[in-house]
Design a protein that fits this description.
alpha/beta; Rossmann fold; six-stranded mixed beta sheet
């Protein structure tokens, strides 16, 4: 097994690390992909055990290289060039910088048929990235177990009043120019529901929020 530790720097100066595994020399991909970039979920990283372990072995056997990567939301907290980052501090929109940097790395390494696989929050980010960027380097995208971020569903839950109070507090902190200040909550907010989906050469049907449904139409699921 060939493994290279690699890294990229995003356009805003954040270093991200990853691990590239390549199939045996002379192998020809039987999947229509030369490389699959695997993106972790909230607080994850490329180096811990994950379901990408088994997936990676299957892909390598099929002649496809595997690149497991960190986003700026890796682990809980780490110190970046502009202060603290990690799952606690990340902004969803910044995933576009991370995804773009890894795709540029893959392209510079000579890969042309590139796929994305995002799991959990990484699935949401993959859909979000490709719907807005429409990156032509991506020939397949997979979103597995994307959480359902639905404001209305949270409000309708048993803890709806607490959720509304937390959101109001967050908006107050933003208005007071303190968007990175911590605000404690007795509730652990989890998505109301989540689904695992895989599809073959089709556009996925997304039964989450209407916004995610619209975003998903720009992604192809392999």
């Amino acid at each position: 097994m060939n493994v290279d530790l690699v890294h990229v720097e995003t356009d805003d100066g954040v270093r991200l690390d990853g691990a590239l595994r390549t199939p045996a020399a002379g192998s020809e991909s039987r999947l229509g992909l030369d490389l699959l970039i695997c993106h972790h979920g909230v607080g994850g990283n490329f180096y811990n055990q994950y379901f990408f372990d088994d997936l990676g072995a299957l892909l390598l056997d099929a002649g496809c290289a595997v690149l497991r990567v960190n986003s700026r939301g890796h682990d809980q907290v780490f110190r970046g060039p502009r202060g603290k980052l990690g799952a606690v501090y990340e902004l969803l929109d910044d995933c576009r910088l991370d995804w773009r940097a890894w795709l540029a790395f893959a392209e510079s390494a000579g890969y042309r048929r590139i796929g994305l696989w995002g799991h959990s929050l990484g699935a949401v980010k993959t859909i979000y990235y490709q719907s807005l960027e429409r990156d032509q380097r991506v020939v397949r995208a997979v979103a597995s177990s994307p959480p359902r971020f639905a404001y209305a569903a949270y409000l309708a839950s048993d803890q709806g009043p607490r959720f509304k109070a937390d959101m109001d507090r967050a908006q107050q902190l933003v208005a007071a120019a303190s968007p990175r200040r911590f605000s404690t909550s007795p509730c652990r907010w989890s998505p109301p529901s989540r689904r695992r989906r895989t599809s073959t050469n089709t556009v996925p049907t997304v039964r989450t929020t209407s916004s995610l449904a619209r975003l998903s139409q720009q992604c192809r699921c392999w």
